[in-house]
Amino acid sequence: MANQYVNLRNIRFLLHEVFQASDLQEIDRFSDYDQEAINFALDAAKQIGDQYLYPIHREMDKEKAYFQDGKVHTHPGLNKAIKAIADGGWINAHTDLEEGGQNMPLMVMNAGLFIFYAANSNAAPYAFLTQGAANLIRNFGDDNLKETFLDPMFSGEWQGTMALTEPQAGSSLSDLAASAKLMEDGSYAISGQKIYISGGDYAQVDNVIHLTLARIEGAPPGTHGISLFAVPKFRKENGALVSNNVTTAGIYGKMGQKGYVAAHLMMGEQGTCKGYLVGEEHKGLSYMFQLMNEARIGTGNLSAGTATAAFYASLQYARERPQGRHPDQKDPASPPELIIEHADVRRMLLFQKAVTEASLALVIQASKWADMAENQSGEAAENAHLLLELITPVVKSYPAEMGIESVSMGMQVLGGAGYTDDFPLEQYYRDIRVNSIYEGTSTIHGMDLLGRKVMQQKGKALRLLMELIQSDLKAGSRKGLASQAKKLQGAAMGLHEITMHLFKVASQKGARYFLADATIYLEAFSLAVVGWLWLKQMLVAEEKLENPNLSKEDKDFYLGKRLCGNYFFSYELNKINPLLSRLAESDGLTVELDTDWIN
Fold first, then answer.
1. What's the sign of the alpha-carbon dihedral 205, 86, 313, 566?
2. In degrees rounded to 5, what are phi and psi of residue 178?
3. What does the pLDDT average to over 340-366?
4. pLDDT at position 1 over 50
5. Does the predicted model carry a pTM greater than 0.85?
């Protein structure tokens, strides 16, 4: 059990038995990805995690990144870890074979990323920021940009970032002030500041390419006047790299992820800073949303990985630490029990298992819909796209919000030891906390879900989701899961009814009342979706348990799935009821008040 941070058996279960990754072989692009090829990729990812990522996870926290003499210094093992990921083909795994990629389905790639994130949530994100930035150039850049930037980014030699946030704007992108002025050579002079830029600078990397939002002089106000630029730290002149006047003012002292740099960048303050237009003028935000949507699923995946590693750390402790006796053991001379024998510790471990395994299921389900939307055509692609759009706020927010709760529960399993840095739980807790803020706060995603996603095409995505849930509810009733199916049916019906109620609120009272409790709606919606994903897992487990020839290992695995599913339906799903009750009131308590009353 030592040093376990993921369970490959569970990853394979989700890919092969629950979500049928082999279905994707019907798509020509993914024809090579049979079960054997997928398992080979997962084993390769685990080897990288074991050798390059997990061993430096604690070290990157204790030997944190720092800013000195104008340079950002990081753990010496970081570059080796990024290169190992790149050399394994993971940064450009999803690209086409003729582009040097592997035609890898997102389902498989995100399963590999999950392993990396669980192994080291400080190091792995550097590589996959680069992946996202390179994908923007690949999809929207001209041939010159592709020739200049893609190879060194995919090889791990150059870092990529997403440079959106500014001091005065925060998440309000319509208020961006960074400017771009067209120059004679066709490039643009970029001027402005960007803050909280993850992976924004470090001395070990040869170059950093910032995918930057800015306004071209004379552009219209608001989000319609924003363009996207590739802004390198060093630009090429006469075949050599020279300073492009992207200056790091410093890095932020974060609560966690102390090995994962967040930089404050100044562009053009010490000379001309050249940016290269990606795509067309004024379409930058629509391009960036491609990366942002990838990053939102990536943040959910990062959260799932971090919480999973914390679960296995607390499980190991619970299996090794003797303390206390059962309430019916009155003899003080009797030996203490391992704490995993205590009912409440088991409850806490089951909570962690329920959250983490559902979080990974969310990521893989979303990834399958993304593969279908990207590589199929007609109604199948359209429906997959709608479902992906609908579920993205959940994939980003549930693993982040509940992952925080899960790691906190893991600390509780360790008791006082969990609060010390002798054990990794306190680091996991600090590291995961930011994920509910990354790529939009949960409030933003609640408003996106309720205010936009559920209403797309007159609610078609929600209808499609409810049809999928209903199909598995019928299967559950036949497979001895009638009790769980009944509970999920009630949750789904309650969610549908409250959605219709809130639409009436919108028409009668307006957007402020409609969206006032959007975050609570997101929480309720997430519980229903996660309940569905647990039912799907239980359906497979029940079918497998009908086989009398299962090995003990397999039987224990499927019984564990049954147990954890029962935990979710008994302890977690019923939490939806008070949320729905609150949403039904729609009294505008947080709308109709004077801010002076908050004192």
1. positive
2. -55, 135
3. 98
4. no
5. yes
